[in-house]
Amino acid sequence: MAYTLQCLPNAPTERSGWVLGEDRNTNANTNGPIRVLLADDQTLFREGLAGILASYRGMEVIAEVPNDAEALRLVGELSPDVVIMQVQMPFERAKETLKAMRSFPDPPKVVIVTMFESPGYLRGLTGVGASAYLLKTSSSEHLVAAVRAAALDPKSENAVVGIPRSTLESTEEGIESVLSARELEILLLAARGLSNHQIASSLHLAEGTVKRHLANVYQKMGVGSRGAAAREALLREWITIEEITA
């Protein structure tokens, strides 16, 4: 079964977005690594995840905890950029935890990693501010892409979703006009002025693959050039000036 990452519009929430130039956005994306807090009751999974993230440049695991209550306590103490957490039962508990995290003055982005392949959970958690919803069977590359995409989206207006396409199609939102995590990554590099050849070398892709991704981006965004795509992405706040000039 094929799994893909998609960027879906988040449901409107009362959460206020970060503004360009805020300390968290700068620390996470320009002056230092993305600071990650892990919350999962499976010790082996949590420790394995910490090891995976530590192997990627630009990621720093600042704490590991077994449950959402401990995660909430440490969010207040450590101010992580991103929290990676499981869905703790009952489901309303997960929603309340997300709402509580959203209430902090400097709230983290939240990436959900779960075994529940549920459109209802997907809608419910992205609707209260989750930046990503991934299955535990997702690859490490997908997880890292989701964490980075969350850090790139200052107002949390889009959610990265890594579940089967059939599940996405059963949600209320369509998928025809959303960007995949790879497309978002290539768009950012293009906005920085990198050529297709440079992007391909940076991401270890064929140049033709980069061209196809950019063509898909233009079609989905209704634009005809990388400059227009970059401007539109800035307007939608999928990327920031800080990220382009990093």
Number of strand elements: 7
Q: Approximately what portion of the residues adopt beta-strand conformation?
A: 15-25%
Number of domain units: 2
Class of secondary structure makeup: alpha/beta
Shape: globular
Q: What is the straight-line distance between the termini?
A: 37 Å
CATH superfamily of the largest domain: Response regulator
CATH architecture of the largest domain: 3-Layer(aba) Sandwich
Please compute the radius of gyration using only Cα atoms. 17 Å
Give the % helix.
40-55%
- Supply the number of helical segments: 12
Q: Please identify the oligomeric state.
A: single chain
The strand order across the widest sheet is: 1-7-6-5-4-2-3
Q: What composes the largest sheet?
A: 7 strands, mixed
The CATH topology of the largest domain is given as: Rossmann fold
Query: Kindly state the mean pLDDT as a whole number?
Result: 77
Order of helices and strands: EHEHEHEHEHEHEHHHHHH
CATH class of the largest domain: Alpha Beta
* Low-confidence parts: 1-5, 11-30, 170-176
What's the short version?
The protein has twelve helices and seven strands. By secondary structure, it is of the alpha/beta class. The protein has two domains: 3-169, 3-Layer(aba) Sandwich (Rossmann fold), CATH 3.40.50.2300; 181-245, Winged helix-like DNA-binding domain superfamily/Winged helix DNA-binding domain (Arc Repressor Mutant, subunit A).
